[in-house]
């Protein structure tokens, strides 16, 4: 742990700060540092003087001006570590000097944190002692975290589950922050790159997070020891699994009925020609939070959006002078203006997240056994229907829960990426009212997002020839083909394929040429578990190919 905290995070952050200060910031000011001159170029005119004399504020003085031309000395300053906030007016990305300051602070925190835990020399805290000291007051969680240290240490699946869960969340946060706080110069002006990076990271996050639950379930089947974990937090979670699963169930049902109900009501109102009868709910709490951070367009007089409040006035003179300008500009994606369409789609995404979680949590908590099949753990992670005499035991292995959850995960990522892409292309085109008006009913999504933005793909080839988008048009068709092939495995089940194979074997034996090829054992169709895996792979890959082609063609077709 010390090695990871200090060695990996701490040292790498410090090294990145070094690169930014010594190479990137000078380059942004027109001074190129190479192997032949790096010893003679000072990143700051005063060198290390301010560091040793304690006058660190000198490193923040004289930042680049608003008229700075990136890559040249025109309008450039000399500061190397700043806290300006907001974006560079020309590159539309974060100030490099802010980024350097941030990484220096992160490096400091991690280098200190890396000295906290016990090493081979017996210095520092023991993780085991820290963990077992955490016993909730009043005995509400039994023996607390006792036994957990050895359980985690002795299970590679538990460790992998924790690592995947962390990495999955981080990957999703990367998707969010790469566009809202762009760190790379000029990336904010390359719309296709932004759309592709956001979608890519959200898909990766989805797969990694579902993988975390899969390995959690394998841990419960193969590595969990009830005696070692008696009455600790892990055991109590298993004891309360009915409460956990039923709570997730009612939350999913509530979200599903209400969200779909609102969308369908609005669809019917549009169909009957009375759009004014739609139920449109303003996300006032989210708007209040945005206002508290300084967004003035909603008219809330609160915190940073209140010009005579102490927070606003202190902020003006002490910190982040560029923040308030950036948050109220519509040219960036910092805090997008939100309305009823956003309110609805956020609840649709919440439905997807809660249902995916419900299926995965149920799969993991029921992996050891249930009232229907108490000895489930003896059958392993994946097993098909459990034979005659135990009816109704199909689809209850932990693998089946993972398999079903991946469809819900892909569904959810679809809603997330559709929302992000549609909102942004209308923003980039200066046509955000299209999103605001059409996103409150399902037909609007189908017609004004999917259908209207497919025209580029449809015209990749047409009677008059082809264009640079033709490869994406091919990929769009190919993706649909792969995706649809998945259903062949997912819907036509094992008996159908077995009978078909027996018919083919009969034909094989009666055909002179085919009869030259023989087989030792009787040909058998894919098992249910195998067919589901093949079907899931086709569905996922085809889905991603199809949306990738749509996303790239519709974005680059508009913005180049």
Automatic annotation (TrEMBL):
<dbReference type="GO" id="GO:0015979">
    <property type="term" value="P:photosynthesis"/>
</dbReference>
<dbReference type="InterPro" id="IPR036408">
    <property type="entry name" value="PSI_PsaA/B_sf"/>
</dbReference>
<feature type="transmembrane region" description="Helical">
    <location>
        <begin position="99"/>
        <end position="117"/>
    </location>
</feature>
<feature type="transmembrane region" description="Helical">
    <location>
        <begin position="471"/>
        <end position="491"/>
    </location>
</feature>
<comment type="similarity">
    <text>Belongs to the PsaA/PsaB family.</text>
</comment>
<dbReference type="Pfam" id="PF00223">
    <property type="entry name" value="PsaA_PsaB"/>
</dbReference>
<keyword id="KW-0602">Photosynthesis</keyword>
<feature type="transmembrane region" description="Helical">
    <location>
        <begin position="156"/>
        <end position="175"/>
    </location>
</feature>
<feature type="transmembrane region" description="Helical">
    <location>
        <begin position="203"/>
        <end position="222"/>
    </location>
</feature>
<keyword id="KW-0249">Electron transport</keyword>
<feature type="transmembrane region" description="Helical">
    <location>
        <begin position="401"/>
        <end position="422"/>
    </location>
</feature>
<keyword id="KW-0408">Iron</keyword>
<keyword id="KW-1133">Transmembrane helix</keyword>
<keyword id="KW-0148">Chlorophyll</keyword>
<feature type="transmembrane region" description="Helical">
    <location>
        <begin position="343"/>
        <end position="365"/>
    </location>
</feature>
<dbReference type="GO" id="GO:0016168">
    <property type="term" value="F:chlorophyll binding"/>
</dbReference>
<keyword id="KW-0411">Iron-sulfur</keyword>
<dbReference type="GO" id="GO:0009535">
    <property type="term" value="C:chloroplast thylakoid membrane"/>
</dbReference>
<keyword id="KW-0560">Oxidoreductase</keyword>
<feature type="transmembrane region" description="Helical">
    <location>
        <begin position="243"/>
        <end position="264"/>
    </location>
</feature>
<dbReference type="GO" id="GO:0016491">
    <property type="term" value="F:oxidoreductase activity"/>
</dbReference>
<dbReference type="InterPro" id="IPR006244">
    <property type="entry name" value="PSI_PsaB"/>
</dbReference>
<comment type="function">
    <text>PsaA and PsaB bind P700, the primary electron donor of photosystem I (PSI), as well as the electron acceptors A0, A1 and FX. PSI is a plastocyanin-ferredoxin oxidoreductase, converting photonic excitation into a charge separation, which transfers an electron from the donor P700 chlorophyll pair to the spectroscopically characterized acceptors A0, A1, FX, FA and FB in turn. Oxidized P700 is reduced on the lumenal side of the thylakoid membrane by plastocyanin.</text>
</comment>
<keyword id="KW-0479">Metal-binding</keyword>
<dbReference type="GO" id="GO:0009522">
    <property type="term" value="C:photosystem I"/>
</dbReference>
<feature type="transmembrane region" description="Helical">
    <location>
        <begin position="533"/>
        <end position="553"/>
    </location>
</feature>
<keyword id="KW-0813">Transport</keyword>
<keyword id="KW-0004">4Fe-4S</keyword>
<keyword id="KW-0603">Photosystem I</keyword>
<keyword id="KW-0812">Transmembrane</keyword>
<keyword id="KW-0460">Magnesium</keyword>
<dbReference type="InterPro" id="IPR001280">
    <property type="entry name" value="PSI_PsaA/B"/>
</dbReference>
<dbReference type="GO" id="GO:0051539">
    <property type="term" value="F:4 iron, 4 sulfur cluster binding"/>
</dbReference>
<dbReference type="GO" id="GO:0046872">
    <property type="term" value="F:metal ion binding"/>
</dbReference>
<dbReference type="InterPro" id="IPR020586">
    <property type="entry name" value="PSI_PsaA/B_CS"/>
</dbReference>
<comment type="subunit">
    <text>The PsaA/B heterodimer binds the P700 chlorophyll special pair and subsequent electron acceptors. PSI consists of a core antenna complex that captures photons, and an electron transfer chain that converts photonic excitation into a charge separation. The eukaryotic PSI reaction center is composed of at least 11 subunits.</text>
</comment>
<protein>
    <recommendedName>
        <fullName>photosystem I</fullName>
        <ecNumber>1.97.1.12</ecNumber>
    </recommendedName>
</protein>
<keyword id="KW-0472">Membrane</keyword>
<keyword id="KW-0157">Chromophore</keyword>
């Amino acid at each position: 742990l010390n090695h990871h905290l200090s060695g990996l995070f701490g040292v790498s952050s410090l090294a990145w700060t070094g690169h930014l200060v010594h190479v990137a910031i000078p380059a942004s000011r027109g001074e190129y540092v190479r192997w032949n001159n790096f010893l003679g170029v000072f990143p700051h005119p005063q060198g290390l003087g301010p560091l040793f004399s304690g006058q660190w504020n000198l490193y923040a003085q004289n930042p680049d001006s608003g008229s700075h031309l990136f890559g040249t000395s025109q309008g450039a300053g000399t500061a190397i570590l700043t806290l300006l906030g907001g974006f560079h007016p020309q590159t539309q990305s974060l100030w490099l000097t802010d980024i350097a300051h941030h990484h220096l602070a992160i490096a400091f925190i991690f280098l200190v944190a890396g000295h906290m835990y016990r090493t081979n020399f017996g210095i520092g805290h023991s993780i085991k002692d820290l963990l077992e000291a955490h016993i909730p007051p009043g005995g509400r969680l039994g023996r607390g975290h006792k036994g957990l240290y050895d359980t985690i240490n002795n299970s590679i699946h538990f460790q992998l589950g924790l690592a995947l869960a962390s990495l999955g969340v981080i990957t999703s946060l990367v998707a969010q922050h790469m566009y809202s706080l762009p760190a790379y110069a000029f990336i904010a002006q390359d719309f296709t790159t932004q759309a592709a990076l956001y979608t890519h990271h959200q898909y990766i996050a989805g797969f990694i997070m579902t993988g975390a639950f899969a390995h959690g379930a394998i841990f419960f089947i193969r590595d969990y020891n009830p005696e070692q974990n008696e009455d600790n937090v892990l055991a109590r979670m298993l004891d309360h699994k009915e409460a956990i699963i039923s709570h997730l169930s009612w939350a999913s049902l509530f979200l599903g009925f209400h969200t779909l109900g609102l969308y369908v009501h609005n669809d019917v109102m549009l169909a009957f020609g009375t759009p004014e009868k739609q139920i449109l709910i303003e996300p006032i709490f989210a708007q209040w939070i945005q206002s508290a951070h300084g967004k003035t367009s909603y008219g809330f007089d609160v915190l940073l959006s209140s010009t005579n409040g102490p927070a606003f006035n202190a902020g003006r003179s002490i910190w982040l002078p560029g923040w308030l300008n950036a948050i109220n500009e519509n040219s960036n994606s910092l805090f997008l203006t939100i309305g009823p369409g956003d309110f609805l789609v956020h609840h649709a995404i919440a439905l997807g997240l809660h249902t995916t979680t419900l299926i995965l949590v149920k799969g993991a908590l029921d992996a050891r056994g249930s009232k229907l099949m108490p000895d489930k753990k003896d059958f392993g992670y994946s097993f098909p229907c459990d034979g005659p005499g135990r009816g109704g035991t199909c689809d209850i292995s932990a693998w089946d829960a993972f398999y079903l959850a991946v469809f819900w995960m892909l569904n959810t990522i679809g809603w997330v990426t559709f929302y992000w892409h549609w909102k942004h292309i209308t923003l980039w085109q200066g046509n955000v009212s299209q999103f605001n008006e059409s996103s409150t009913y399902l037909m609007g999504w189908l017609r004004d997002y999917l259908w209207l933005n497919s025209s580029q793909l449809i015209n990749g080839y047409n009677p008059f020839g082809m264009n640079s988008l033709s490869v994406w048009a091919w990929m769009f068709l190919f993706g649909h083909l792969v995706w649809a092939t998945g259903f062949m495995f997912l819907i036509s089940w094992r008996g159908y394929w077995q009978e078909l194979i027996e018919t083919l074997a009969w034909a094989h034996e009666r055909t002179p040429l085919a009869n030259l090829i023989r087989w030792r054992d009787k040909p058998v169709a894919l098992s249910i578990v195998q067919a589901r895996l093949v079907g899931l792979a086709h569905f996922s890959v085809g889905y991603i190919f199809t949306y990738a082609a749509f996303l790239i063609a519709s974005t680059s077709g508009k913005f180049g």
